[in-house]
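Review this:
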Amino acid sequence: MVKHQPLQVYEKQVFVSFVTGIYGCRWKRYQRSQDNSSRWECTWFLILCSSFLLLLFWAYFWLVAQNDFNEFNWSVYNRSGEWRDETVPLLASTTVGFSYITFLLILALFHISLGQQLNLYWVHKIGVLAALLTTVSGVVSVDDIWGDEWDIMLVSLQATAPFLHLGVLLSVTAVSWLVAGYVVHKERTNFQVMVLLVYVIILIAVYLAPLMFTCPCIMDQHRLKPRPDIIGQRGAPMLAPENTLISFNRALQHGVDSLEADVTISVDGVPFLMRDRTLRRTTDVGKVFPARQFEDASLFNWTEIRSLNAGQWFLENDPYWTVETLTVRDRSRIGNQTVCSLLELLRLAARANSSTLLNIRKPPPEHPRYRSWFMDTLWAVQKAGISQKRVTWTPDTDRGRVRGLQQAANEKLSVDEIRARGITSLTLHYSKASHKDIQEYLANNVSVTVYPVNEPWLFSILWCSGVPSVSSNAPQVLQKVPYPIWLMSQNAYNFIWITSDLVSLAIVTGIFCFQKWRINGMHNCNPEQIMLSAVAQRSSRDVNIMKEKLIFSDLNNGVNSTEELSLYPENGYARYSHGGLSR
């Protein structure tokens, strides 16, 4: 008599093996489980999700903060005294960490979708903790060094909010597959009901999110104001050393409407252009006057200042990663630049029929020109031959002495304060100039200049807000933006918003109905029938025989040697004959 133990067959699960193998190092079938995940592993999943959200915030911050990368490096320089591009390691670590955490999160979601038990490999746990702690330390450090930069997040939402809304809507809609698979059961627990309730609240909040934000570029085209004037802040510092003649010439070549410079008064009363308190960063004072390199720049006389090289540092440090684009002739000219005087700048502006905006740093009280700095500056303006109406300076001190010259305040003031102080223009950081404030200033005939504006997205929202002029380190970039990068009427956006919400609602409803039908079908079917039908419908090419055991035993009536016994002759799996077992 022949006793046959039933065949055990399995289907190749390459994708499941890939997912569980990379996530939890469970490459073999017997290592996997479809039991509920432990609380410990669920905790690690929450840590993974938290790390992803933090890194998503961190990556978005650095994406929009590109507008101020040089400001960040300058802040680090003022604290450390050494110039280096700190954005490179930050961007590299953020990219690697975000990619790694995102990949693990996708694998975890596949685990949930496939019904596999979560079991994060210990190496990945160390990696998740390392990414989380590194990001937290980065956030704390940036908050200490560059705390004001967080405002750019809110400013950027004026441009990105409609697109972020569509991205979040797509993500929440996709998550409905997992939520539906978890909560659609005949017997629901309180936790499942809570998960469903939280998901519905989040879904409704995402649907109604456009009611909570305003975007200047959602407007009718006929209401768009003229293109803002572009002011070359310190010339074109991405193409040449800041505050040098070649830098201002480059800015004029790229069509700027005005030039902006930082003015310091030398010890012998000569106004010259310098942004920093010392000469260390932008000159070779460490080589020429090593014992005085940490002194205030205003304590040098003009002869000493003029002897310094003001261009070689640009070629060596490459602060904007643009040196490789320069020709040999340009590098030679840059390498021979000297510190520029205010008189040279004003004469250049007069020849180009351009205006100037001067940020004047008053000398310290112990400076010999502390009481006469104003007359020194006014002398340079008069000697340059430029119209006084084309010269604007900040701060707006000594208003009684300034006659014929334009003055601008570099702080945010109320309309009443502006009228009381007789100011007609403001120079504001973009984080201080909201859309509402800009409209109020313009309605009261107050001109507003916003700085620094280096990215097209920021230039676009300020254009849509009606800003008359912007100050930029990248005039060569903004000149290539002939129109806001996106402009949409309110009716068009409302149509996109409502349509996307309705499509999402239909997809979510369909997913919940499908999951309900699938779960009910599984409860109504006999598992043995499912297995038998699955085996019967597959050919031998689609299944692998894990184990086939034949047990032969001689009984009293026996099987004679001439008899032939066939097992599954119709499928050809095995055949017993007089000669033995053949396949």
